[in-house]
Amino acid sequence: MLEHAVPEDAILLVDGVFLNRSELAGLWNYSIWLYSFPERPVAGGGPGEGPDPVSHATASLTAHALYEAEAHPRDAAVAIIDNSDVEHPRRVFADAC
Q: How far apart are CA 80 and CA 6, in angstroms?
């Protein structure tokens, strides 16, 4: 195991998909839901580069839809960021008030 000494006031940022699954959700003090074109196919897998990008995108979107239905990551997020315009991301206040 690799260990590093860090200051007491250090902040650890974790970026990834499916991080609000039930087995991980309690680990985070702050969670951000980043909204960014969910209907767009995911990158990678172009012609001659591995899996068919369309079927890969379909599988990815299906897995993501299941994740959203089970974990409700948008509801768990402290902040929601709309990044559909990458030049002008904006915070969305989606509370019930």
A: 29
* Spatial distance between the Cα atoms of 58 and 65, rounded to a whole number of angstroms: 10
Residues sharing a CB contact under 8 Å with residue 19, sequence separation 6 or more, in sequence order: 28, 31, 73
- Which residue from 91, 59, 96 is spatially nearest to 75, judged by alpha carbons? 96
Going from the C-alpha of 41 to that of each of 11, 24, 74, 87, 97, the distances in angstroms are 32, 26, 20, 20, 34
Q: Does the predicted TM-score (pTM) go above 0.85?
A: no
Q: What is the pLDDT of residues 43-93, one digit of tens each?
A: 444 445 555 555 766 777 788 889 889 989 888 889 999 998 889 999 999
